[in-house]
Design a protein that fits this description.
The protein is of the alpha/beta class. About 55% of the residues lie in helices and about 10% in strands. Strand 12 and strand 13 form a beta hairpin. Keywords: GTP-binding, Hydrolase, Motor protein, Nucleotide-binding.
């Protein structure tokens, strides 16, 4: 039953004599009003574009659900109405209790401010502003209007009214009108800071209502959703069950209201509403805490105070974080150069920074600057490539299943007029040249691979050091590529020379050669005996089990020479492969230091200062950098102003609490 405990003055302020509302709500104007004003200032600054969501009561509902009537009753003013979409842009309604009997009504949009003197002109003013924003057609726009209503007796509330949901385009409405409206609604109701005021007609099935489906998709538990049921006098049957069973999971509850009819004054409408819920045989059964615009006003005030109090510390934190991040990003941008000397100093700083970084990661092996990028851990990556080369060279050593056949072929091809049993030096060199030719592509391939890696490293560091001056980047990239290519050519030449040296002579002072050769020759007696064995096999270190059956018909002199040649080459080949890897590693380090410590710097300076006039180009800031600077400066100004607003309100809270 509804009694006369509620007094509603001019559609707004509620005084309840019997219910004990929280002190925060009773003294709302004095304690929360400054905070609400601060949040509204942030909203006007459009701080949400910086990714800082604000606590907002978002009004949603299907088309013709009675949204406008509810807002009119709360504000005590008339809003645009009709059968089509009346709200075509977000309408931010800022209601403020005003002690002066003369209302102050202002419409703000697109940096304009229109003062509305006569209340009956509000709908017209909103209509004109909507046309200016969204055009003459029935299309919608996401650019908001702000209606500030300062009026005696209205609750201090800020709400955002969104277009009513419609699925079927009418007249010149866009074909995708549903997608546009639903997209706009989802943008507003998705943040956790948003409270969803879902306006439902009593005549519809709540479970199939489009606005309910949308709110449940972002607020499945319903803890952010309050439902307002309109047109209760038109569909009273079954309403009690609808609002008490809560089949659609409305966490903040239901409030049933009666719409103002025709030319009723707001006071008359409230009296009629009170009488309806008090005397109607069905509606009077609904608990009085769930009926009436006064109850709705109180409930919204309570909810708004709670959500603002809850979000305030996080808003302050996010503003500070965003401001600090924007200042850091702004400071990272290059200084706008205005003279050649300034450009020269900056250019030399870039070159010096590039050189220093490359020295650290390529020469010193440091990677702290690129700790999370393993490709920039250069010492480790180059060591892996050298190890891989060593394994590839070792795997190139393949032993023929027919033991000594290759050696005997070489002996046959190099046979000449000479003393018997004498193995000439040319035989060994012929064998050596063949083996070197077989692996000659591996060292060259290593150079191509490792140098390609180094070029990528240099390119990344170059972008990191020169990225703020994109007008310089092509010139420095060209110079870097040029010096790397020249050095690679020299590196390849050295490698080819190394390969050629290995072909033309056989020499080592490594004592391991004699040790290894003598050890292998120690198997000679076993080798000779194996040919008389039934299995004709023997085990030789480094070769495994070998079959000698095919050698029984070969002359003893040829067998001995082939065996000796095999063992000498095996012992010496180990030395050759090891020498190649060591030489490649040393050459790599040598050329890296030469490039980083001297040649790259000289090439870059020559290209930028002598060949291409790059210093002058540094004075022309690229449009992309200019635009980024302007955006960051705007962001910093906005966030600094937001910070000042929040600091003031926080100081006021501290003073009030004391």
């Amino acid at each position: 039953m509804v009694n006369n405990d509620h007094t509603f003055i001019n559609g707004g302020e509620v005084i309840n004599h019997n219910q004990n509302f929280p002190p925060l709500v009773i003294s709302y104007n004095e304690k929360i009003r400054p905070i609400l004003d601060a949040v509204d200032k942030l909203r006007r600054l459009n701080v949400t574009q910086e990714g800082i969501p604000l606590p907002t009561i978002v009004v949603v509902g299907d088309q013709s659900s009675g949204k406008s009537s509810v807002l009119e009753s709360l504000a005590g003013i008339s809003l645009p109405r009709g059968q089509d979409i009346c709200t075509r842009v977000p309408l931010i309604m800022r209601l403020q209790h005003h002690s002066d009997p003369v209302p102050e009504i202002v419409l703000e949009f697109q940096e304009k401010s229109v003062k509305i003197i006569e209340e009956n002109k509000i709908s017209e003013a909103i209509g004109k502003a909507t046309v200016e924003i969204a055009g003459n057609s029935k299309g919608i726009s996401n650019v908001p209007l702000t209606l500030v209503v300062r009026k005696r007796g209205v609750p201090d509330l800020t709400m955002v009214d969104l277009p009513g949901i419609t699925r079927v385009p009418i007249g010149d409405q866009p074909k995708d009108i549903y997608e546009q409206i639903s997209g706009m609604i989802m943008e507003y109701i998705k943040p956790d800071e948003s409270i969803i005021l879902n306006v439902l007609s009593a005549s519809v099935d709540f479970s199939t209502c489009e606005s309910i489906c949308m709110s449940r998709s972002v607020d499945n538990t319903g803890q952010r959703t309050l439902a307002v049921v309109t047109k209760c006098d038109q569909a009273p049957n079954g309403l009690l069950e609808k609002v008490t069973t809560n089949a659609v999971n409305i966490g903040l509850g239901y409030i049933c209201v009666r719409n103002r009819i025709n030319n009723e004054t707001y006071e008359e409408a409230r009296n009629q509403e009170a009488a309806l819920f008090e005397t109607h045989p069905l509606l009077s059964k609904i608990d009085n805490s769930m009926v009436g615009i006064p109850v709705l006003a109180h409930r919204l005030v309570e909810i708004q105070s709670v959500i603002i109090s809850k979000c305030l510390p996080e808003i302050v934190k996010k503003i500070n974080e965003k401001l600090n991040a924007s200042i850091v990003d702004l400071n990272k941008l290059p200084r706008n150069l205005t003279s050649i000397p300034d450009a020269m100093v900056t250019f030399m700083q870039i070159v010096g920074s590039l050189k220093e970084t490359l020295q650290r990661i390529l020469i010193q092996g440091a990677f702290d600057e690129y700790e999370n990028d393993q490709q920039m851990h250069c010492d480790a990556r180059m060591a892996e490539m050298i190890d891989e080369l060593s394994k590839d060279l070792q795997s190139s050593v393949k032993f023929s299943e027919r033991f000594l056949v290759e050696e005997m072929k070489v002996l046959e091809e190099t046979n000449g007029i000479r003393l018997p049993n004498l193995l000439p030096h040319s035989v060994f060199l012929t064998m050596l040249k063949r083996k070197v030719n077989n692996i000659s592509d591996l060292p060259v391939g290593f150079v191509n691979k490792v140098w390609g890696y180094l070029e990528n490293v240099c390119a990344k560091v170059l972008i990191d050091r020169c990225g703020n001056y994109p007008q310089l980047l092509p010139l420095m990239r060209k110079a870097t590529h040029c010096v790397m290519e020249k050095t690679k050519v020299k590196f390849v030449e050295r490698v080819v020379e190394m390969i050629e040296m290995e072909k033309i002579t056989d020499y080592t002072c490594d004592p391991d050669f004699i040790t290894s050769y003598n050890k292998l020759m120690g198997y000679r007696t076993q080798f000779l005996n194996s040919m008389s064995n039934v299995n004709c096999t023997l085990n030789v270190e480094g070769f495994g089990t070998v079959n000698t059956r095919h050698l029984s018909s070969v002359s003893a002199n040829t067998r001995d020479q082939a065996y000796d040649l095999k063992m000498k080459m095996t012992a010496y080949w180990k030395i050759v492969l090891k020498r190649m890897v060591d030489c490649l590693a040393l050459q790599l380090r040598f050329f890296m230091q030469k490039v980083v410590n001297k040649e790259m710097e000289m090439e870059i300076v020559n290209e930028v200062m002598v060949q291409s006039g790059g210093i002058e180009k540094m004075l022309d800031e690229p449009p992309s950098v200019t635009k980024k600077r302007e955006l960051l400066q705007t962001s910093v100004r906005l966030l600094q102003e937001s910070k000042e607003i929040m600091e003031k309100v926080m100081d006021d809270i501290v003073v009030t609490s004391e």
